[in-house]
Hints:
With about 375 residues, the chain is an alpha/beta fold. Helix content is about 30%, strand content about 15%. Flavin mononucleotide binds near residues 98, 266, 320 and 350.
Amino acid sequence: MLFEPISLCGMEVSNRFVRSATHEWMAEPDGTPTEKIGDIYEELARNETGVIITGYAYVNPKGKSDHLQQGIYDDRFIEDYRKIVDRVHKYKSRIVLQIAHGGRQTMISSEAPYALAPSAITEKTMGITPEEMTEKEVLETIDDFANAVRRGKEAGFDAVQLHCAHGFLLSNFISPYTNRRKDRWGGSTEKRTRIILDIIEKAREMVGNNYPIMVKLNATDGYPEGSRKNTLDAPESIEIAKILAENGVCAIEVSGGTAEAGDELFRTDIDSQEKEAYYKQYSKMIKEAVDVPVILVGGIRSKVVMEMLLEEGYADMISMSRPFVAEPDLVVKIKNGEIDVVKCVSCNLCSDSSGIKCNYDFGD
Ligand SMILES: Cc1cc2nc3c(=O)[nH]c(=O)nc-3n(C[C@H](O)[C@H](O)[C@H](O)COP(=O)(O)O)c2cc1C
């Protein structure tokens, strides 16, 4: 099944492999995407990666999360992104723009003197207490996301993915731990999900009904067992997935974790098949609840596990991040029977602010 085509959001994709969004630390300081970023995506496309999701692009400088992160907050970026998209489209791969706002994980700078979030709940790893967004700021942010979707379409991206995972703004809104609002964007599950629906509605006015909008969704905030009360977890995240799928989201990538919960989102101890695909129970429940394709990410490393995930109904597509840093040609290698397990050891040394690369010494 790994090499069977799939219809994803109305587009034909030639296999089941997705390169999950991966920040590169390679944009210009103002967010302009560079040729180096294009080099990475072109290499993935040349090596038959079915879908390539870009690193997270910030929709407003007030929501920038990291140095040298790519931006999509201004029309001036459209042309540079179009060049990157064209390089990918020389091959069969599809390319998706991930758009994000840092929320309580915003990097404090002259552009973002304070972090914005649904509620003023201190982020303990950074020691930052964000400002509770005013109604005006929420409405402006909805506009920022909608305009980013429009720019994605204008640049030729096959789809846009809203980053609703990992403790960034949209993930802050859906979590009862970080969203204590009492207005129309807080309270019940539906109200906490509403900002995402508002973004989609606003974006639809600009890009029409058919342009594909996907989400990367936190299925759990990832706090340790015993301290999950009043945080986001199943079954509530399944409910959120249903609301999104019923309101025009055409594919859901299932992830989890936040920095504060302990960096569960990129685990380091994946040394057995049992430890692979660590959010698979969530993706199975979500797949049973929605009728849009479900993409699973998080610690997927071996061909047997990949096949099992597809065959046993855990997911429709297999998404990976770190393995593609170590082996951009892993899809072709699996296809040709050259490897059964990717070589990535999940050490996280690729998380390199001088520019992403595999820094593990394989001794070869
Ligand atoms: C260096 C690095 C950068 C990442 N950047 C992003 C990002 O921009 N957007 C996102 O949704 N996830 C990001 N992630 C998380 C990955 O997409 C993925 O969810 C996580 O690494 C687990 O998958 P893996 O085990 O295949 O690496 C990043 C991960 C790493 C290691």
